[in-house]
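Deadline looming. Please check this record:
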Amino acid sequence: MMQAGGGRSGPLRVAHFYHLMSQSPFLAGAEAPPGLAEWLSDATKVATTYRLQLGWMRAQLPGFPMLRVPQLVDGAPLVSSDQIHHIPWARQDFAAGYQLMSAPPRVAGSGRELGEAAARVAEAFIHEEEWRQFEGAQAALTASDIDQLRRVNTSLRHEVRSEAVDQFEPGNLIRRLEFRHDKLEGALDSLTGDAANYARSFDVLNDLLQTTLETSLDYFVEFDRPSVLSAVDQIDLDGDHAEFSVNEVVHVGGLVYVPDAAIDEVGIVESTSLTMDHGETRIRVGIKVLRGAREGLDL
């Protein structure tokens, strides 16, 4: 397991983040450990297969490849090579014709079962509320909305071009990504009406895709089930987010099951910090609650 940008990276994504982090000047000249080449070859094969599955799944979104959202403008965080939290949207996927395929393209040795499983997952997504809301938001766009999106996207594309990002921060990936995020948020805030609803509903749907296809799937490839926490207390709930204190070590990006009646659900760990409670060191954990996950996992 690797830690990338404060989160975990399991078997499906580890090669992507390794290649990204290996470009860091801090690792320049570092001696490769024994067996790295063989491990990296295997990890890259896994990552390539997964990347095709993910690209095909994204291509099933309503309106693909003509997605007019600022989030997918060249240089925006989701498509940037600086992306350290998720697998970037690849520009070549928009021209690959994946939306016309009934299943993802196969990689030699991957087996037909992977494609069939991906098709079933895509079918399930279509029935989710986030999917329907984005589809409806897209259908509601008028010519005026599309023109507004075009103008905002053009401006954002200029703001996050390589020269502008390099001038702000030439090397630190986190600062570069923060710069891109700040410019994107400014662009999103400038949108109004149905154009704004379209862009924000994409955020909600993409968050569902990331939670399911990246964070959760990557975790379950490595582990059979979420970690079950005990002795959870000092619980604070805020919608689909919760904070609580435990004595157990957990990792950002991991999946945990909180059996306390106030939550009684699976969640993705978003943050951890050390606190002192009457002289005792505790771990304060923040999670995103995944409603309905417990039932599906038979916990």
Q: What stands out?
A: The chain has a mean pLDDT of 87. Residues 22 and 31 are 11 Å apart (CA to CA).
